[in-house]
Task: inverse folding
């Protein structure tokens, strides 16, 4: 069991229950978890001769590993595709479905490596991914393998689409699956990969894609399956006006009511987006404990709207952040997402609608709450050693760090992390991802991306 003493940090943002912020702080890591935290001048003499590794975090701000609550890692392959650059969600999907129909097991694996590497370098240590398209030989196993090799804490959700165009759905019939096959694969993924224990590195969820790509029967069966195994359930909901119109025409109700009628509310459920929810529906989220993954960059990119995050937080809704698919965001930087969340809530006229600390809290303990993880999202004794460090002496923070280093992380343009530890294992040091030749990974990824688009 390896021990670390990370010392002389300029500032530590604990995000603990007291929201302590420590100057000149230190953290003792023993194995997978934090064993002590406090001022350097107290911890240094106590542990300096009793640890395997000393790490000088001078000029760094340390904070909990960021939590990404919604992503589609395979979409790194189709960033900035010209035909989809200026489309709203439904047209964007119709453009990309035929390209994604050419996905392979290799493409899923390599795209996951790229997306996870990008997230780690942004300070993200826990990633929930929604893989809902399985053409050719693709399996959820491919991205789980990538996460295991990369060392990130992973929440893969086995999605699926079953409602093709011929049955009134949005996706072409060529990319949908049989519902029994989807349920079998959800069950297999849970049984093979889900680890419910504290400090788990892989927790599987079920995630039928959206109201316009699966049937009500699949929604009912999948939530029943999830609850029989005690795992979480995830889906897209209330993302755009088009989706709202679809639900009104097909089901006679708004998306939130549709989800409620099917049992898709509760502390074991989280929705991606929840942009188009009214006051009554926000209260539904609060009353049932349903979580939300807020994806501000994607919502702006696709002109989907502005989620009422301030209203949700005031109502006690669990809200975390998601970068969303890399083809509807074209980036995977979770600290940048926190900045966008803060700025987007202010667009409507209130400069205090979301503070820097609230945005950072959504990216840490807020995301942990959405994923029902009580072992991550904070820096405290007994919690997972998921720790991120960013140097405050970078040019980007000049003139900000002396005043408020925590606000500097969110207000200033986000940098890559200088230090990232996941589960007590150092993965990023001096801004470099250890043990990987990212040039080779990117070259292979670009080869697959070109072939994917050309094949369409």
Result:
């Amino acid at each position: 069991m390896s021990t670390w003493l990370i010392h002389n940090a300029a500032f530590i943002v604990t995000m603990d229950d007291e929201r302590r912020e420590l100057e000149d702080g230190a953290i003792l890591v023993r194995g997978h978890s934090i064993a002590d935290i406090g001022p350097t001048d107290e911890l240094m003499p106590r542990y300096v001769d009793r640890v395997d590794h000393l790490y000088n975090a001078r000029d760094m701000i340390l904070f909990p590993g960021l939590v990404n609550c919604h992503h589609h890692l395979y979409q790194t392959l189709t960033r900035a595709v010209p035909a989809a650059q200026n489309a709203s969600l439904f047209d964007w999907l119709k453009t990309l479905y035929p390209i994604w129909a050419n996905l392979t097991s290799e493409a899923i694996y390599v795209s996951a490596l790229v997306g996870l590497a990008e997230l780690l370098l942004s300070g993200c240590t826990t990633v929930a991914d929604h893989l809902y398209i399985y053409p050719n030989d693709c399996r959820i196993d491919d991205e789980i393998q990538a996460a295991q090799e990369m060392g990130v804490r992973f929440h893969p959700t086995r999605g699926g689409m079953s409602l093709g165009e011929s049955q009134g759905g949005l996706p072409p019939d060529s990319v949908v699956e049989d519902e029994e096959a989807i349920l079998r694969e959800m069950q297999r993924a849970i049984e093979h990969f889900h680890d419910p224990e504290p400090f788990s590195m892989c927790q599987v969820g079920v995630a039928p894609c959206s109201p316009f790509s699966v049937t009500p029967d699949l929604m009912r069966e999948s939530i029943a399956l999830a609850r029989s195994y005690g795992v979480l359930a995830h889906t897209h909901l209330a993302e755009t006006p088009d989706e709202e119109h679809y639900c009104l025409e097909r089901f006679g109700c708004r998306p939130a009511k549709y989800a409620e009628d099917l049992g898709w509310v509760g502390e074991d459920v989280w929705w991606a987006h929840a942009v188009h929810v009214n006051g009554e529906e926000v209260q539904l989220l609060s009353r049932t404990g349903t979580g939300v993954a807020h994806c501000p960059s994607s919502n702006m990119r696709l002109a989907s709207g502005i989620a009422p995050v301030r209203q949700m937080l005031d109502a006690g809704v669990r809200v975390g952040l998601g970068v969303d698919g890399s083809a509807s965001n074209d980036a995977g930087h979770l600290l940048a997402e926190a900045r966008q969340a803060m700025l987007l809530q202010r667009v409507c006229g209130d400069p205090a609608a979301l503070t820097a600390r609230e945005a950072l809290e959504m990216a840490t303990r807020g995301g942990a709450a959405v994923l029902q993880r009580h072992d991550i999202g904070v820096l405290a004794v007994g919690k997972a050693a998921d720790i991120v460090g960013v140097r405050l002496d970078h040019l980007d923070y000049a003139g900000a760090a002396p005043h408020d280093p925590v606000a500097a992380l969110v207000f200033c343009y986000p940098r890559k992390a200088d230090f990232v530890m996941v589960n007590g294992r150092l993965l990023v040091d001096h801004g470099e991802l250890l043990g990987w030749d990212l040039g080779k990974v990117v070259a292979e990824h670009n080869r697959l991306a070109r072939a994917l688009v050309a094949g369409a």
Remarks:
- The mean pLDDT is 97.
- The chain has two domains: 3-64+377-431, 66-370.
- The two ends are 50 Å apart (CA to CA).
- The first strand starts at residue 3 and ends at 13.
